[in-house]
Every structure is written in structure tokens, then in C-alpha cells.
Amino acid sequence: MFEVQEKPRLVEHAYLLSIIQREEERDEAESLLQELEELVSNLGIKILKKYVVRTRKTFPGHLVGKGKLEEIVNEVGDLKCDVIVFDNEISPSQQRNWEKESKVLVIDRHEIILDVFAERARTKEASLQVRLARLEYSLPRLRRAWTHLGRQRGGGVTQRGEGEAQIELDQRMLRDKISSTKKEILQVSTRRETSRKKRHRIPLPTIALVGYTNAGKSTLLNAMSGSSVLSADKLFATLDPTSRKLTLPSGRMVILTDTVGFIRKLPHRLVDAFRATLEETLVADLLLHVVDLANPQFEEHMDTTLAVLRELGAKEKKILTVFNKVDLVHPDTARVHARMIDSEAKFVSSQEKLGIIQLSKAIDTILQGEYKLSNYLIPHDEYSLVARMRKEGCLRVEEVCDDGVRVEGTPQGRLLHELQKYSEK
Prior knowledge:
Low-confidence stretches: 1-9, 146-161
Radius of gyration: 27 Å
Shape: elongated
Number of helices: 15
Strand content: 15-25%
CATH class of the largest domain: Alpha Beta
Strand order of the largest sheet: 6-7-5-8-9-10
């Protein structure tokens, strides 16, 4: 019986490979290989070589010509590498062809990302989403697992060998697993929606932290809320959304949510699989786009994040750009360049807690425009309404008078309706 399981840690030394067709692609390819090196290293695999290969034409079988193929295979053997990792997306047939020539494991960037996600998943929802992505990735690659069987005899399409029959059986089993996993994810997503509705009974504004992986979103969440969410200097340190209450300088209370980071060449199956997790960005009142200003490719990282947000349908959301890690860059050059990109952006250092108060004030100002400020004179015997305003974080000013309590605030939902009769024009 075929089972898609966690890949055993049998590889220790990797050869990273990127194929380009134009010389102007080299800088980006080297940047992506550097990122791939960090991803692979996070799995405990040592990198022995990174290689960018330029080809002048398309070679569908191996992506490179015969001479370059032999050169790479010989070098892989000399270095005693046990895995070749392509930064390019390779097809199942190309994967088989390379493994046949090199006699080592051959995978691509997508499979590495899936492995990292699987290692970092903590909640049931994240684990299910990783499982789904892996199952969908494995389906067209089943034939690789059964190449030792092959056809047992010749004949027409009705005369199939044991290998063909086994492949079909495993494909059917895999499709059943995909179907059942999707149902489980739907159930978990329904529970998350129920939990979200409970939170919205106390209609606090919600803010989602989005951005490229390792931009410092979790550290910013900790710096703003005083919490201790896991934060580490590595890609995809946080996969599961984490929410914390935050009191802004005005006294307004909000919900701040950390989300999974984005990455260049993020597999589409992962965008789909993690849609339930990333739904936090769709229901948020404000998105904080956290950018690692110390990273030389921060502009490309910004473009990647915005592209994924568009794919999720969140492009119409109000977005405040937050340039993080300013303590690691030269203030006169990086800041000027960043300010040219976004004149409304804020600059912070989550690690050193620099600029946090200014950021909180900016959030206050934005939300003030979203929620109408109103005045009410509430009778003393209805003081419970004042207590509710305070609990929901919408109370700004409270003054006790002879004929009641005069308040100023931004109530929402049912509370707004109940306060209408006490409104002061």
C-alpha cells in the first residue's frame, strides 16, 4: 500500500542548481539560490556547491545540453553530493531523467518549501494544509516510485503490467486521501470561522501583519503587544496565525494577528492550501506590510507580498508599509530610498523597539478615519453601556455629569444601535 509520509532524513550534502536562458537573469538567479541555500540549510542539509547555468536553447529532457549534464553529474559525484536541488520547477519526467543520470535524489524548490513547512507546522490546521499540498505535489510523481516494476509484457492498452496496475491503484488511493484531507480542512476552517465570529461579537478592529518571510513580523507582534510569540532569524519560523490584543495610545483596543510569510516562487498549491490561514488578511481592517529594510532584495520581496495579496483578493485593503530592522542599515541611504517607494511608510526596529510608539499612533490615526467618533449622554442607571464601551475598546472620553455620563467614542454593531437614543448631535 502506497503512503505519502514524511521524507526520511537520508540526504546530507546538496548541490544547488539554477538554469537561466538570459544573462540579465543571473543576478536574480543568484539571489534566489542564496534564499534556496537558507531553506535547504534549515532542513539540516549542508550545501557543497551553488551553480547558475546559462543555456542558449530549451532542452525539455534535462533543461541543459548533454555536455553540461555530464559536467554537472561528474561534479556531483566528485563532491559526493546525495541530492541535487533545482531552483527551477522541474517536471516529473525531468526529475526521473536527472535521477537516472546522476544516481542521486533530485528535487526542486517547491519540494524543499513543502519540507520546511511540514517541519514547522504546529497546529492541526497547518499540518492538514501541508499534507494536502504534499499529496497534490506527489500525485504526478508516483511513477518515479514504481520505475523498478515497469511493464511486464508487451501488448495494447488493455494489457498492462503489474507496475501500471500498481500506479493506478496508488493514484486512486492518493486522490481519496486528497479528498478526505480537503474535507478535514473545511471542518477546521468552519471552526476557525466560528471562533472569528465569537471574537467579532466584541467588534474590535483587526490588524494583520503580512510580509515576506523573515521580515520580522513575529518580533513586531511581540514588541507592540508585549507577548512572547516564537520569533527566529530563519525562513517560515511561524506558520500558524497568532492573535494578540493591543491597546493603542488613544486607548482603543485592537486585535493584532501574525500570519505566515510569503516567498518568491511560492508554490500555488501552498497558496491554495493555506488560504484558510491567510483568510485573516481578508477580514482585517488594516494590513501592516512588514519589510526587512536590511535585505538587499527588499523591493522584490515587497512585490512578491503584494502579488500574493492580490491573488488572495486582499488588494483593496488599507495597507500601511512598515520598514523594519532600521538599526541594521545606514539611515541616510536606505531610508531615503524607502521613502521614495512609499512616502507614508513607518520605520521601526522590532528588535530594539525603535519607532513602535510612532507606528501605534499612525495606526490610531488610520482607524480614527475608519470609525466615526460620536458623543453620547448616558443616564446613570445605564452605566453598563459605558462599561461595554470600555470593554470593546471604543471609549475615548468619559465625564461624569449631574444628569448622566458624557462619553465620546467609536462604538460599532449592536452597541452603536443601543446608544443611538443617547446621541448628542
